[in-house]
Design brief:
With 175 residues, this protein is mainly β. Helix content is 0%, strand content 56%. The chain contains no helices and twelve strands. The strands form three sheets. Strands 3, 4, 6, 9, 11 and 12 form a six-stranded antiparallel β-sheet that branches. Strands 5-10-7-8 form a four-stranded antiparallel β-sheet, with no helix packed on it.
């Protein structure tokens, strides 16, 4: 424990002035959650929520990484060439969007037959979103929420958030 000198010149033992700790560190924090639309309309869902309690004013860092699987509304591979957008972010106490990240996926295998064998080749699987941000918070209890959004223009989609290896959510308190 460090030694400090108070206003009277007395040496006192006190905890470190800089304290950093990680109250939340969760792997695979989202059980598979689907965001769907049969007509491509944008839909947003809360994917995860947690609270932290601070004893003093602190700089709080939030970091997330999550996989997103992208298919048609009927859960088939996307093969129509139309773009699908997927997005993630978090809020603190229902405030502004922080850590915003966006991806876009499109696929038209009719134009992708590199082997000339009549079998189209296309990418599929999980695509990852990741974001982070800082916010200064007063003492008290604060709620952090993670959101996902899907959008397909006029084309249906199913965005499956989470459920894969590599999803991670962390909160780091700096003070």
């Amino acid at each position: 424990m460090p030694v400090y000198v108070d206003d009277n010149g007395t040496m006192v033992l006190r905890p470190s002035l800089v304290q950093t700790y990680m109250p939340v560190n969760i792997n695979d924090f989202i059980n598979e959650i689907e965001i769907r639309s049969n007509n491509g309309a944008g839909n947003t869902l809360e994917l995860y929520s947690t609270t932290i309690t601070l004893s003093q004013q602190s700089l709080v860092e939030v970091i997330y990484q999550m996989g997103v699987g992208i298919t048609t509304y009927n859960r088939q591979p996307v093969t129509d060439g139309a773009a699908r957008m997927y997005r993630g972010w978090f809020t603190v106490n229902n405030g502004v969007r922080l850590g915003l990240d966006t991806g876009t996926y499109t696929n038209n295998p009719d134009n992708s037959d590199p082997n000339g064998d009549g079998i189209p080749t296309y990418a599929s699987g999980l695509y990852f979103l990741g974001g982070s941000g800082f916010v200064q918070l007063p003492p008290g209890t604060h709620t952090i929420r993670v959101y996902g959004l899907g959008f397909g223009g006029e084309f249906g989609y199913t965005m499956t958030y989470g459920g894969g290896n590599g999803d991670n959510f962390q909160i780091i308190v700096h003070r």
